[in-house]
Amino acid sequence: MLQIQSLTRRFGERTAVNEVSLSIPAGQMVGVIGRSGAGKSTLLRMLNRLTEPSSGRILHDGMDVTALKGQALRDWRTRCAMIFQQFNLVQRLDVLTNVLVGRLNHRPLISSLLGRFTAAERAMALEALDRFDLADQALQRADTLSGGQQQRVAIARALMQQPRVILADEPIASLDPRNAKVVMDALRDVNKRDGLTVLVNLHHLDTAREYCDRIVAMQAGRVMFDGTPAELTAEKVREIYGVDEAEFHEQAEEAVRPKHTVAA
User: Which domains are present in the chain?
Assistant: First the structure.
């Protein structure tokens, strides 16, 4: 169980996340939606402790995540894997090595620094790549892959951490529709087959409805809706955001339009 209690983050006089409280059962797939600037990314970054909360607590199975320091915090970031919009791969390295990076916090420091991975770890990485139809690309440089392929490599890398929670921060915002579907299918597979808790920030309501068990809608740092996809009706969207769904989608598209789209 992941529990978020009155979580708040302020940047000067601006409050990016405002008193957010959620209880997320293990194994649930949660879509977090909202316009650009709603606080979605800040919320996920606080859960991983990449951004420090101004106040509030994060608990995971009774452990106070907000109190962790040093190795305990590094261990949490291993159990709570993060997937980013722009992949965060080392472009000059091959795909297999990028996936093996997910094992670094499981290994002695000297072995990590020297990049020495065991045969079992390499087999584990190849199995993860094969799961996402990428085994044939294992020895290619990461920068030779399409955007959708790179994001699947990032998911494989996250699985190598053997996490219990995966946080995906707008993982399809820079992808074309076909690649976006492939990546969302991969995240749903991880959620269903591995039983991992998945929180994914999304701009598109239809994607959240199709893939997520639960939808949390944010506006100006606050949770404005928390329910099932069926409960997020067109009327509810209009009530939350003051616009109909078509206009909401148009605004969401505008929010990501300046960012380049990665084609297949």
Answer: 2-256 (3.40.50.300)
